[in-house]
Amino acid sequence: MRPTGTMTAEAAALRHYLDAQRASALAILEGLTDEQLRTAVVPSGWTPLGLVKHLGYAERYWFQTVFGGTASEVPWPGDDENLMTSAHPVAEVFAFYREQCERANDLLATTPLDAKPARGHGNDPDGEVADLRGIALHMIEETARHLGHLDTARELLDGRTGLGPR
Question: According to the lineage, what is the superkingdom (predicted)?
Answer without folding.
Answer: Bacteria
